[in-house]
């Protein structure tokens, strides 16, 4: 049985989903699995998993059924809502059937997800990187925003959280959750102080006992740090952060001439993006589960604070302990 700490943090995220701490274990391609979400629910936070982590819609349906049965608290599904996701229609149907507590939409318009899944009671939270897109999804009826900042892993945004969160708070009426750069309790404290209703935290959970990736990937998240994270457009066609391994250094981080030309051609752009995405995801999939020279490991700079491969509970407890220390230190300064 998990013993929760005394600290209670009250935000839109904790009140809406009845969780103790305002933390979403962020959806990570190939890293997130059911075991991680089930464990997260025992620790007072909630996890989210990409639907694409299951190879087929049939396996996705089996996975979401297990989460409904075994999660002690809420859980979410991440949907890629652009044309690269050929399974989107079926994934939406499955989410309508099983009604996850929330869905995080990424890389496209959430309109269909809001219309169909929102009507079933699922909260729809949208990844955004700027104010313009935030206002668009708000007008479509999104329940909250995931402010993907420049410290995020994977498809990071261009703006630091210290600018992005206050900007969204000023101009949008729906809640804002910050994604990126939180690897310590003090960072969680500062994120909430900026006005965020919670933090979406991914990279610190790569090096966990429960994650399903290879020991080499987990160890890389321990051995490498913030200075080793680079942005590449060669994985999905959209800039994505990866660990700067020797293989990444060899292939470079920019698309070659042919890739760049195809992505700029109006007639071929859609198909080029789909091909780039498919090839990139296959490369990441191969690297995630086996040791290989062709290593492409997605991660964000917050792996700086991963020093050991640990259980999820240890990481959550440490985050909250550090948060408590930051609160106390701040209060002491106010006296």
Describe this entry's structure for a reader:
The protein is of the alpha/beta class and 335 residues long. The protein has two domains: 12-212 and 308-330, Aldolase class I (TIM Barrel, Alpha-Beta Barrel); 215-301, no CATH class. Helices cover 43% and strands 13% of the residues. It is built from 13 helices and ten strands. It has helices at 12-17, 34-42, 57-70, 88-98, 111-116, 131-140, 161-171, 185-193, 215-223, 246-251, 257-264, 269-289, 312-334; strands spanning 23-25, 46-50, 75-80, 102-106, 123-128, 144-148, 176-179, 199-201, 229-232, 240-243. The strands form two sheets. Strands 1-2-3-4-5-6-7-8 form an eight-stranded parallel barrel, surrounded by five helices. It has a two-stranded antiparallel sheet with strand order 9-10. Helix 2 (34-42) links the parallel strand 1 (23-25) and strand 2 (46-50). Helix 3 (57-70) packs parallel to helix 4 (88-98). Keywords: Flavoprotein, FMN, Monooxygenase, Oxidoreductase. Pfam families: NMO.
């Amino acid at each position: 049985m998990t013993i929760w700490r005394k600290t209670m943090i009250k935000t839109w995220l904790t009140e809406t989903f009845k969780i103790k701490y305002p933390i979403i274990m962020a959806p990570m391609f190939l890293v997130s699995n059911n075991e991680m979400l089930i464990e997260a629910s025992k620790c007072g936070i909630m996890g989210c998993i990409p639907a694409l982590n299951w190879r087929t819609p049939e396996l996705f349906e089996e996975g979401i059924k297990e989460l409904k049965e075994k999660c002690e608290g809420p859980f979410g599904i991440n949907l890629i809502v652009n044309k690269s996701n050929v399974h989107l229609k079926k994934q939406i149907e499955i989410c309508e059937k099983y009604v996850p507590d929330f869905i995080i939409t990424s890389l496209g318009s959430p309109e269909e997800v809001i219309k169909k899944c929102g009507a079933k009671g699922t909260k729809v939270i949208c990844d955004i990187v700027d104010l313009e897109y935030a206002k668009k999804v708000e007008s479509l009826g999104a329940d909250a925003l995931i402010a993907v900042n420049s410290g995020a892993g994977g498809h990071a945004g261009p703006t630091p959280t210290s600018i992005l969160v206050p900007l969204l708070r000023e101009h949008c009426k729906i809640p804002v959750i910050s994604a990126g750069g939180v690897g310590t309790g003090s960072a969680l404290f500062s994120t909430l102080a900026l006005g965020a209703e919670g933090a979406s935290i991914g990279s610190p959970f790569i090096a966990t006992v429960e994650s399903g990736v290879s020991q080499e990937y987990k160890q890389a998240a321990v051995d490498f740090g913030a200075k080793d994270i680079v942005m590449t457009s060669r994985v999905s066609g959209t800039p994505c952060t990866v660990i700067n391994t020797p293989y990444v250094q060899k292939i470079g981080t920019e698309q070659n001439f042919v890739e760049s030309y195809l992505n700029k051609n109006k007639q071929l752009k859609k198909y080029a993006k789909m091909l780039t995405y498919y090839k990139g995801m296959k490369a990441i999939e191969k690297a995630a589960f086996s040791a290989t020279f062709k290593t492409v490991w997605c991660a964000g700079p917050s792996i700086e604070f991963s020093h050991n491969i640990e259980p999820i509970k240890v990481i959550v407890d440490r985050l909250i302990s550090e948060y408590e220390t930051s609160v106390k230190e701040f209060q002491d300064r106010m006296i």
